[in-house]
From TrEMBL:
GO terms for cellular component: plasma membrane. InterPro entries: Atg22-like, ATG22/LtaA_families, MFS_dom, MFS_trans_sf. PANTHER family: AUTOPHAGY-RELATED PROTEIN 22 (PTHR23519). The chain crosses the membrane at residues 21-39, 73-92, 130-149, 170-189, 201-222, 262-285, 297-315, 327-345, 351-375, 416-434. GO terms for molecular function: transmembrane transporter activity. This is MFS transporter. It holds the Pfam family ATG22. It comes from Kineosporia babensis. It is a multi-pass membrane protein. It is found in: Cell membrane.
Amino acid sequence: MTASPSTGRLREQRAWYVYDWANSAFLTTTLTVLLGPYLTVLAKRDACPGQDTDLACRTDLSVLGVPIAPGSLSLYVVTFATLTSALLLPLVGALADRTGRKRTMLGGFAWVGAAAGASMVFLTGDNWELGVVLQLIATLAFACSIVVYDSLLIDVAGPDERDRVSSRGWATGYVGGTVLLVVNLLTVSQHEAIGLSTEEAVRLNLLVAGLWWGGFTIIPFLRLQDRPPAQPLPPGRGELVRASFGQLLDTLRHLRGYPQTLAFLIAYLVFNDGIQTVIYASSIYAQEQLGLDSDQLILAILIVQFVAIGGALSFGRVAARIGAYRTVLGSLFLWCAVIGVGYFLPYGQFLPFAALAALIGLTLGGTQALSRSLYSHLIPRGREAEYFSLYAACERGTSWLGTLAFGLTFQLTGSYRWAIIILIGFFVIGALLLSRVNVRKGITQAGNPVPAVI
C-alpha cells in the first residue's frame, strides 16, 4: 500500500531528526570536548619533549615557518577552517539548491567528515601534524553537511510545521550528544578498569564519535528524498558553478534591500562569534588554565547539554512576556557576566567550573533558540530557503575572529585568563549593533505580520 503524502513526510521528518542525533554527538564529543585539549597535548609534547604536558610549554612550534604556541595551535586550526568555510559554505548551499541532490550531498559530506573523525584514533605520541589535517577535514565536512541539512528543513516540513520540526531536531541533537557524552565519561573515568591509559581512552572515544556520525547518517541517506531543483540545471560543470555563484550574489544583492535584516545578521555574526569561541575554547581553558581532567571536562559539557534545554524553554517564557528582541539583547550582557566569572575561577577546583557550565548552558540555549526565531521574522516572503541557507552558512562558517583573538591573546600573554576577557568585546559590540536594529520596521519591510510581542 502506498503511503499517503502526510505519512511520507512524517517518515522524512523522523529521518531528518536522526541526522541531528548523528552529527551533534560528533560535534560535542570531538570538536567541543576532546580534540582541542588532546591536540594541545600532542603539540606540547613535540615542542617540549621530556616535559610533563600538564606544565606550561614556552617553546613555539614551527608551522610553515611561522612560530605557533602549542596552546594556540588548535584554536588557529579552527580559525583557518572557519575562514575557509566563510567562502565555501554559501557556494555549497547554492550548489545544493541548483543540483537538487541534497540527500546525496549530505551523505557525502558526513561520511568524509566521519572518516576523518574516526581516523583520529591514530593520533599518538607527538603527531600533531596529522591531527591538524584531520581536524581541518572533519570541521569543513561537518560545516558543509550542516548547511545542506538545514536547507532540507524546507523540503521535509511545511510552513506551519517548521517550528515544531526544527525544535524536535534540536532536541534530538541534544539527546544524542548527551548519550555519547555519558559513554565518553564512563570510558575516560574507568579507563584503568578496562585496561586503557587516559590517552587510549580519549582516542577510543574519538573513534566511536566518528563511527557514530557515519553510521547513523545511513538512516537519513536512505529515507530522505532528493527533489528537483527550483531552477533548471544549467548544462556543464562550469555553468553549474557560475550559476551557483550567481544565485549567491543575487541573494546578497537582495539582502541589501532589507537594511534591518542585514543589520540583524551583522549583529548576530559578531555575538555568535563570541558564543562559538566560548563553546570551543572552554575545554582548552578548563584543562590548560584550571588543570581539570578529561572526565571532569566531559561531565561539565554534560551539564551544559542538560541545562541548555531548560535554558531555551525558560528564555522562551521570558520572551513571551517581554519579546525575543529584548530577551536576546539582555542575554548578551549575561554572557559578559559569564566570561567575567570564568576569569576568576580557581585552579584545580571542579565545582566552580561546573557552576559556570550550568550558567553557560542556561544562556546558550536561550540565545541561540531566540536568535533563530527572531531572524525568521525578518526574512522576506517567498525567499525563505535562500535566507535560511545564508543564516546557516553565516552561523557555521564565519565564527573565526573569536578563536583567532583567543589564540593570539594566549600567544602574547601566555595566559588563557586574559584570552577569555577579550571575548567580552564580541558581546558588547554585538549588543550595540543589535540595539540599532528596528525589528518592527524590519518585519514590516519583509512583508510579515508583526507579532503581538517582539
